[in-house]
Amino acid sequence: MKEFKQHTLESAPEGSKPLLSSSIANFGWIPNQSAIMAEAPTLLEAYQKAHDLFIESSLNDTEMAVVWICMGMEHNCDYTIKAHEYIARKSGVDENYFHALKYGEPLPEKLEALRKFTVKLANCQGRVLPSDVETFMKAGFSRAQVFEVILGVSQKTMSNIMNNIVDTPVDEVFSNGI
Length: 178
Prior knowledge:
Elements: H1 17-27, H2 32-37, H3 41-55, H4 61-74, H5 78-90, H6 95-103, H7 109-123, H8 130-138, H9 143-166
Helix pairs in contact: 3-9, 4-5, 4-6, 4-7, 4-9, 7-8, 7-9
InterPro entries: AhpD-like
Protein name: Carboxymuconolactone decarboxylase family protein
């Protein structure tokens, strides 16, 4: 298979240049995932908008990390796992949760319900049982959060598929993953 290019601001298609500039503003560099996504400005924009909207959701930093890392685990996406562990650490998420997510150990009750619901969504092929939604909500999540988790799962599905197709190299700063 032909290799996919990691774009710079200079080599990226015009539609991706402002998006890569926003990556630099947010991270201080262009993450490898964004550099590769830049080949398709529409994908990069959709991913970044989904990310920004998920950040604006009512889920807290720990809950978002559970969704992101669970998706990486479900899709065997090393890039997602390591990048979002890095982001979670910077946000102060409890280190014990990374170990629990990696080894399938139980999380506190509400986070465990979130993990199970995220895994259901990741593997549901468009169909989730009403009992799965009910169990998730009984753990303390709202109706809106049902949909916010769908947003996070969708965001990570985009990147995980792309990362697995191109074998995105993990950025050095993310290399101390789980």
